[in-house]
Amino acid sequence: MKDAAMYIPTYQDMLDAHERIKPHIRRTPVRVSDYLNDLTGTQLFFKCENFQEPGAFKVRGASNAVFGLDDEQAKAGVATHSSGNHASCLSYAAMLRGIPCNVVMPRTAPQAKKDTVRRYGGRITECDPSTSSREATFARVQAETGGDFVHPYNDPRVIAGQGTCAREFVEQTDGLDIVMAPIGGGGMISGTCLTLATLAPETRVIAAEPEQADDAYRSFKAGHIIADDAPKTIADGLLVPLKDLTWHFVSNHVSEIYTASEQEIIDAMKLAWKHLRIVIEPSSAVPLATILKHRDAFAGKRVGVIITGGNVDLDKLPWTQGESA
Amino acid sequence: MKDAAMYIPTYQDMLDAHERIKPHIRRTPVRVSDYLNDLTGTQLFFKCENFQEPGAFKVRGASNAVFGLDDEQAKAGVATHSSGNHASCLSYAAMLRGIPCNVVMPRTAPQAKKDTVRRYGGRITECDPSTSSREATFARVQAETGGDFVHPYNDPRVIAGQGTCAREFVEQTDGLDIVMAPIGGGGMISGTCLTLATLAPETRVIAAEPEQADDAYRSFKAGHIIADDAPKTIADGLLVPLKDLTWHFVSNHVSEIYTASEQEIIDAMKLAWKHLRIVIEPSSAVPLATILKHRDAFAGKRVGVIITGGNVDLDKLPWTQGESA
C-alpha cells in the first residue's frame, strides 16, 4: 500500500460496506453497568464486538474486503499478516465465501487465536514477533499464493468496514460525548473517525493505548508516525504501528490518546469480566483502564467504549499467572 | 408457606409482575453461536440473565415481591434464605426501594456472592450448608426482624416474576421447540412453565440438574417430592429442593429433566465462556452440558437456554482448580 496513491475511504464507502457485510456480521448489543457507572462517575456504554462470531470487530473490515472482490480476484483468495484477530476474521470471511486465506502470524501469538484461524480454514505461516520479520515473511507468502493482500488496518476497505461499528453504536445510544477504542494500527479508530465525522461530529474520538506499546501516543504528540519494533504488552492486539492511512484519521480527527500500564489493563479487564459479565481480551480493557486513570477527563460524560474482541486463552488468565508461576 | 393455602400464580400475575418490575430490570439480550450450533446439531438461543445488574434472573422475582409490598409492610423490609443469587437480588431490589433486607446464607457460599449482598446493603447471617440449618437459622432471624419473608422460589410473587423472562424470550425469538433452564428449587422453571403454558403451549420445558444434586430428577421420576440434605455440586445455585408450589409446575408442565456430571458441567461452562464470550456461573452451564450429553433429544430443534447467572469468583475458576491444588 505504501507505494500506491493513498485512497481515503469516504462516508459513502462506509455505508456501502454496511450493506455488503450485514448478512455476514452481527449487530452487537450494548452493555451497561450501574456499578461501573458509579465507580467511574460517567455513563458508560460498551459495544460488544467480542460477540461477533469470530470474536472481534475485525470481521467487519475483513468481510468488506472479501465480499467486495470480483469473482476473478476471489479465485486466488486473500492473504494477510496479523497479530491474531484480523487473521481469524479474514479466515472466517474467506470461509463464508469459500475462497482460500493465507495468514502470517507471530509464533508468539496466543494459541487460542491460532486455533481459531485453523478452525476457519486459514493457512498459517509463522514469523518472529517483530514488524520487520512479519513483513518479510508476508512478502514471500504473498508472492507464492497470489492472494489479494488485505492489510489488517492500512486498507480503505478495512477502515470503511470497521466504521460500520460506530454507525450502529450511534443508532443504539441516545447521543455520546465520547467514543473510545484501543489503538494498535488504528483501523478501528480510523473507521470510527470516518463515521462520526459525518454522523456525529460533536462526538469526540479518544484512543487508548498500552504504555508499553505507546507508539500511537508518541506519534500523536510528535505530529508524525513513530514506530516501535517488537514492543511487549499483554494487549497483544495492539503491537502494530500506525501507517499512512490510519495516521491520516488519527492526526486529523482523534481528540486525545491516553495510556495505561500493564497492571491497570489487567485490573480493568478483570473488572469488566466481573461487572459486565463478558469475556474480553486485554486489548479491549485499555479504554476502561484509561477512564479509571484519567477520571476527571470523563466525569459526567456519556462515553461509548468499543469492546474490540474476546479471544483469550481461558487457561492462562493474566490475574492467575502470578500464582501459577 | 407450607401451612398456608397454596396460591398458584396465574398468567395475569406474570403480566402484572412484568409491568411492576420493568423499571428495575433489564430486558436481557439473546446470544447465539454458530460454533455451538454446529457442535450440538441444534439451533441454540441463550437468554443472558447474567446481564441483569446483580448478575442473575432472580432480580425479577425479588423485584416483584419488593415493589408489590404496600408502604406499611415495606417498613420492616424483607428477609430470606438463599444459596446466593436470590440474596443479592433481593438486597438489590430492597436497596432500590430503600428498605431493609436480611438474608441467611450458607457460610460455604462463594465469597463473590457474599460481597455482592453486602454491596447492596443486605445484612447476612450465616448458617451451615444444609437445608435444615438454613431453615432453623432463618426462623430465628425472621422472628427478630419481622421482615416480609420472600422465599427464594416457593412464593407466587417470585414465580410470577421469574416468568417474565420467558415472555421476553418468546418475543425475542421466532418460535422455540424447547426452553431449558437449570433446576434447583424450581423457581425459574416454574415461572417458565407458567408463562409458556399460555403464551407458547407447544414449546416444551426441559429442566437440567447436576447428577450430584438430582433431587428434582428423582422427584420427577417418583411422582412426589424427594429432598436431598446437603448435596454437593459445583453448581452452587442448585442445592435446594423442590417445594409444594414449584412441584405443582414441575409435575404438571415439565417434559423432561436431564442430569450432567460435575466434569460435564465444567466443560460446558468453559465452552460457553469461550464461544459465547460471556461469564456464566456453573449452574447456568448445566443445560448446555445436558444438551451435549443427550444430543439425540435435541438434534434439529430450536432450543432456548436461560443463562441464569454470572456471579463467579474469577480467582477460583473450576478448570484451574486442579492445577493450583
TrEMBL record, chains A, B:
The keyword Lyase applies. Keywords: Lyase, Pyridoxal phosphate. SUPFAM superfamilies: Tryptophan synthase beta subunit-like PLP-dependent enzymes. Residues 21-309 form the Tryptophan synthase beta chain-like PALP domain. Its cofactor is pyridoxal 5'-phosphate. GO terms for molecular function: ATP binding; L-serine ammonia-lyase activity; magnesium ion binding; pyridoxal phosphate binding; serine racemase activity; threonine racemase activity. GO terms for biological process: D-serine biosynthetic process. The keyword rRNA-binding does not apply. NCBIfam families: BHydaspDhtseBhcB (NF045641). This is Serine dehydratase. It comes from Paracoccus jeotgali. The lineage of its organism: Bacteria, Pseudomonadati, Pseudomonadota, Alphaproteobacteria, Rhodobacterales.
